[in-house]
């Protein structure tokens, strides 16, 4: 059995802790899906959006199911959402810093879910 002082010494190396934390962050960033990598083309014109400070509402006016994501001027990440005909989905808003929706893009939901 290890003594408490030995455990304290093992856990008190700031440089080691910083290196392990940095390595973990790099792995997480490399594994995180990229919204830009998952986008394909402009969403059909029958898919419309309205934006407000807190939310961007997207309505599927098409006769078929669509998978879309929202593009923002500052590159803010938005998930890929599958929207049935006549249904809507709500995305995070654009905030108060002058960031606005620039358009809707089709996307692959499997590519952004980590599958």
TrEMBL record:
Coiled coil: none
Pfam families: A_amylase_inhib
Disulfide bonds: 46-62, 80-107
GO molecular function: alpha-amylase inhibitor activity; lyase activity
Keyword Cell membrane annotated: no
Signal sequence, renumbered to the chain: 1-37
Domain of life: Bacteria
Keyword field: Alpha-amylase inhibitor, Disulfide bond, Signal
Key word Manganese present: no
Protein role: Inhibits mammalian alpha-amylases specifically but has no action on plant and microbial alpha-amylases.
Protein's UniProt name: Alpha-amylase inhibitor
